[in-house]
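Support request from a user on the community tier.

User writes: "When I paste my structure tokens into the form, the page sometimes reloads and wipes my input. The last time it worked, I copied everything first. Here is what I submitted, just in case something in the input itself triggers the reload:"
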């Protein structure tokens, strides 16, 4: 599990072994955010924020902490990049401002706008086979979850709306690509964790969402940081720490 730890004024990427509890520090000093795993689990990509220069950049490094970091992409000043996924086809998905981008890690490394409309699109996560992407958008007037086919670094069809009562943050795919998980919106805060069945044969369709459980203490950053095991049986959330007594 890749996490962000804030200590001594620095925000660094660490990798934790869930079974043993051992940890490996990936970055050393500075401001680093939004780590994502490579499809083979051997690398971590993350964003480094250079506040003084006014820009952010995407790097990758071995998941065991060895070797030097490699610069993948430098985003123009003005809006910070937030990584959300790394597809089976080698595409990184990130968003900055209102725009969601795709970037080929081993290609020309030019960011392509996947969604750039008059609304915000963010938090994209690819299906396990990389053929579809789930993301959050406020095109309806509030944030909902959508799924769309992907061809290359672009959307390749009309998005299908998955959620119907508002949604917060990123979605999570079950490993077989047949279910999506997301946190719904209740009032101004997080509600239950939801699941919706996804069908792609003969066409892309989403089933009616149903509630699984309601995680307690989840704050706004937590929706973007939630993860699940591949079978959808266990979830991890970033929650607000209890106040010290």
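"...and here is what came back when it finally went through:"
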């Amino acid at each position: 599990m890749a996490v962000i730890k804030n200590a001594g004024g620095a925000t660094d990427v660490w990798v934790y072994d869930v079974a043993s509890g051992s940890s490996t520090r990936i970055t050393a000093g500075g401001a680093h955010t939004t780590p994502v795993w490579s499809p083979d689990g051997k690398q971590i990509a993350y964003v480094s924020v250079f506040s003084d220069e006014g820009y952010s950049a995407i790097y990758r490094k071995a998941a065991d902490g060895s070797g030097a970091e490699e610069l993948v992409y430098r985003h123009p000043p003005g809006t910070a990049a937030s990584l959300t996924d790394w597809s089976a086809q080698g595409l990184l998905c990130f968003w900055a401002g209102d725009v969601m981008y795709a970037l080929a890690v081993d290609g020309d490394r030019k960011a392509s706008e996947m969604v750039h409309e008059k609304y915000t699109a963010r938090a994209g996560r690819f299906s396990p086979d990389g053929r579809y992407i789930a993301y959050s958008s406020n095109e309806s007037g509030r944030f909902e979850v959508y799924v769309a086919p992907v061809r290359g670094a672009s959307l390749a069809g009309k998005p299908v709306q998955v959620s119907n009562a508002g949604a917060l943050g990123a979605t999570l795919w079950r490993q077989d690509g047949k279910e999506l998980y997301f946190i719904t919106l209740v009032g101004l805060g997080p509600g239950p964790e939801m699941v919706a069945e996804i069908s792609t044969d003969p066409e892309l369709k989403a089933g009616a969402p149903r509630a699984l459980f309601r995680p307690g203490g989840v704050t706004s950053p937590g929706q973007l940081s939630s993860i699940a095991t591949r079978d959808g049986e266990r979830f991890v959330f970033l929650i607000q720490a209890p106040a010290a007594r």
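Agent notes: The reload is a front-end session timeout and is unrelated to the input. Residues 79 and 97 are 6 Å apart (CA to CA). The first strand starts at residue 2 and ends at 7. Escalated to web team.
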